[in-house]
Amino acid sequence: GAVVSQHPSWVICKSGTSVKIECRSLDFQATTMFWYRQFPKQSLMLMATSNEGSKATYEQGVEKDKFLINHASLTLSTLTVTSAHPEDSSFYICSARALAGGPRTDTQYFGPGTRLTVL
Amino acid sequence: QKEVEQNSGPLSVPEGAIASLNCTYSDRGSQSFFWYRQYSGKSPELIMFIYSNGDKEDGRFTAQLNKASQYVSLLIRDSQPSDSATYLCAVDPPGGYQKVTFGTGTKLQVIP
């Protein structure tokens, strides 16, 4: 069964509003979580990496003030798209991994994704 | 040179045939290798992992690893239309437990 959940699975919002996406690890402690974005027919693009209790590390070209990431606990990370615009419409996918010594350390496990449409 | 390279395809195979998907990686110290499958509009799902040189079989899937050649492959026997998807090769950096590096994926089309 699923080991990582995301909520909501889809969201439609008006331009200028903010949207929060939640990512939860269901049966393990996710010391590291990753946020990806994928446009239609394109490859996964890593946006940022976050470790529990630390500030996220953003990939080059990703605006940290626009895409706010909070990894406050070992099972929850959130991505907030602030002042969303139509060009932010995309498929946002989180992924989680545990550190050595416990379950789910072998690789990254993906959530089901959130489809964001900004009108 | 990209860290993980895959042919983008599409790779078209008839139903029942063997599909062969290939991947090369640049970091010789990489230790763990993964294959993910991504259906259109869905997120990636892990289907195979391999750590040691040689073959690893799981049902209709066989992963092959050759560290000397820095080459990983995935064979799908008796291909079915439901196998049509994009297959992502992923590599753990030396030391593991970090961000996995993904290839751009190979699109597989199984023709009925």
Structural notes for this entry:
The complex is a heterodimer of chains A (119) and B (112). With 119 residues, chain A is mostly beta strands. Helices cover 0% and strands 50% of the residues of chain A. The mean pLDDT of chain A is 91. In chain B, a hairpin with a 4-residue loop joins strand 7 and strand 8. The radius of gyration of chain B is 13 Å and the shape is globular. With 112 residues, chain B is mainly beta. Chains A and B meet through strand 9 and strand 10 of A and strand 5 of B.
Task: Give descriptors for this structure.
heterodimer, A: 119 residues, mainly beta, seven-stranded mixed β-sheet, B: 112 residues, six-stranded mixed β-sheet
Most extensive interface: A-B, 20 and 21 residues
**What string gives the helices and strands of chain A in order?**
EEEEEEEEEEE
What is the CA-CA span between the terminal residues of chain A? Answer: 34 Å
Q: What oligomerization state is this entry in?
A: heterodimer
- Give me the number of helical elements of chain A: 0
Which spans of chain B have pLDDT < 50 for at least 5 consecutive residues? none
Mean pLDDT of chain B: 93
Radius of gyration of chain B: 13 Å
Mean pLDDT of chain A: 91
Order of helices and strands of chain B: EEEEEEEEEEE
Secondary structure tally: strands of chain A: 11
Helix content, binned percent of chain A: under 10%
Largest sheet of chain B: 6 strands, mixed
Poorly predicted spans of chain A: none
